[in-house]
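Milestone M4 deliverable, item 7.
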Amino acid sequence: MTYEELMQKAIEASQNAYAPYSNFPVGACILAESGNHYCGCNFENGSLGMTICAERNAVGTAILNGERKIKAIAIYSPKQDNCTPCGACRQVLHEFCDSDTELDVIVKIGDELKVYTLAHLLPESFTL
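Output delivered:
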């Protein structure tokens, strides 16, 4: 799956977001080491701390399907260009990337895709 295809899946996932409080829908699509992809969208709750980000939703779906290594993730919001993951999502993504390979984070800026490495977005990550 190309990064463009991964982004298209994230765009589609954002259309299913449940964001009545923030009005900030987000979609994400993960490319696992197996070559399979898994999507997620954010869903909010009146108790805002219970809100789940699109990235963590996609990670949960990947885990449910037996995946343990993530190669890339595309993230999209129609409300913001360069929609990178929050700090909590960055740390969760770190848990499922191979330390010998890099995890690419793909975002959309206008009509272009920008690729960050997770190491760039989360230097000095927490590791046991």
